[in-house]
């Protein structure tokens, strides 16, 4: 059976929906063995949460290009993204309010490296002050904060006394951004010019954007912190199918922190992966989980599940491991 979920929402919501679906199937089983799951990309993050919370429901998981992190999400959050030639669907504001985007932020803080010294600039991407200082989203950067406060100062004294600061900041605020060149993160590693309007208008106030960011980062961090291997649990066999033949963005080279603030991080450095997920960012290994097999594929991220030979090898390995586990338990009991 297929399980569809709204990938724009917080993943704990999707994990609860998946749990409900699996419970329905599990309760109909005469022999309670659990369910095999094939999880692609973000689906791996959802399935892995169910594995942690309701291990008995799952008989085995094949993780297909499932990222533990994917720092190139910082590009779409800051600059927006194109859908075909349409620039009005995944705007900066739209991507910022897709809660699922934040689940790809790197917990280790690694993304930027100095072009000259090769020094790493590691940041806590779950700290709202980092977002404001570096301007990781134009909705919460320092320029917009200054603009919001300046706008409040221009209100007549009588009006200022009658309105709360929040109501004042709810007025739409305009500010100027440069139009950089950013990577199309759909997996083709091609740099394309982005015609960002010079003068942008956001529908959400600075204050409300900051409140949303703080709430979402906390919720996301709690979710991600719950995904590590627990030695006290008995997990089912897990397998991985991943790509390692397509150049994949690992991070950006910058001329100091000011380049990050200015959004000048289109000079990428690459490594092997599937075009979206680097081969070292994969679930469940990056969370300390052993796997029964790890199958490399030459396919790109979107087409990984069409590599039927790799998928078959992974499933056979899970079944064989399950059989071996039963034989081991039988030998132990005898």
Automatic annotation (TrEMBL):
Gene3D superfamilies of this UniProt entry? alpha/beta hydrolase (3.40.50.1820)
Q: Sorted alphabetically, which InterPro entries does this protein's record hold?
A: AB_hydrolase_fold, LACT/PDAT_acylTrfase
Kindly give the Pfam families that the UniProt entry links to this protein.
Answer: LCAT
User: What processes in GO biological process is this protein linked to?
Assistant: lipid metabolic process
Coiled-coil parts of chain: none
Q: Which GO terms describe its molecular function?
A: O-acyltransferase activity
Q: What is this protein called?
A: YJR098Cp-like protein
Q: Which organism is it from?
A: Saccharomyces cerevisiae (strain AWRI1631) (Baker's yeast)
Q: What is the lineage of its organism?
A: Eukaryota, Fungi, Dikarya, Ascomycota, Saccharomycotina
């Amino acid at each position: 059976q297929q399980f569809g979920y709204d990938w724009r929402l917080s993943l704990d919501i999707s994990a609860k929906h998946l749990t409900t679906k699996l419970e329905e199937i599990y309760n109909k089983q005469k022999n309670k063995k659990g369910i095999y799951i094939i999880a692609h990309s973000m689906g791996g993050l959802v399935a892995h949460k169910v594995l942690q919370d309701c291990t008995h429901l799952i008989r085995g998981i094949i993780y297909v290009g499932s990222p533990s992190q994917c720092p190139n999400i910082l590009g779409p959050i800051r600059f927006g993204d194109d859908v075909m030639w349409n620039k009005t669907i995944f705007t900066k504001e739209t991507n910022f309010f897709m809660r699922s985007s934040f689940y790809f932020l790197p917990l280790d803080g690694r993304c930027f490296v100095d072009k000259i010294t090769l020094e790493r600039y590691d940041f806590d991407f779950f700290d709202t002050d980092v977002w404001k200082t570096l301007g990781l989203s134009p909705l919460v950067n320092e320029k917009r904060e200054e603009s919001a406060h300046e706008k409040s100062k221009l209100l007549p004294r009588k009006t200022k006394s009658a309105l709360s600061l929040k109501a004042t900041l709810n007025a739409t605020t305009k500010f100027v951004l440069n139009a950089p060149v950013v990577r199309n993160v759909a997996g083709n590693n091609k740099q394309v010019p982005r015609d960002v309007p010079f003068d942008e208008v956001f529908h959400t106030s600075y204050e409300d954007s900051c409140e949303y960011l703080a709430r979402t980062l906390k919720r996301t961090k709690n979710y991600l912190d719950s995904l590590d291997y627990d030695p006290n649990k008995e997990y089912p066999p897990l397998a991985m199918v991943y790509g390692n033949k397509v150049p994949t963005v690992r991070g950006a080279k910058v001329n100091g922190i000011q380049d990050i603030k200015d959004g000048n991080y289109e000079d990428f450095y690459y490594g092997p992966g599937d075009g979206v997920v680097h081969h070292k960012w994969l679930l469940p290994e990056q969370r300390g989980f052993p796997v029964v097999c790890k199958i490399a594929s030459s396919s790109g991220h979107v087409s990984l599940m069409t590599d039927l030979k790799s998928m078959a090898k992974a499933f056979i390995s899970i079944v064989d491991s399950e059989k071996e586990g039963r034989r081991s338990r039988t030998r132990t009991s005898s």
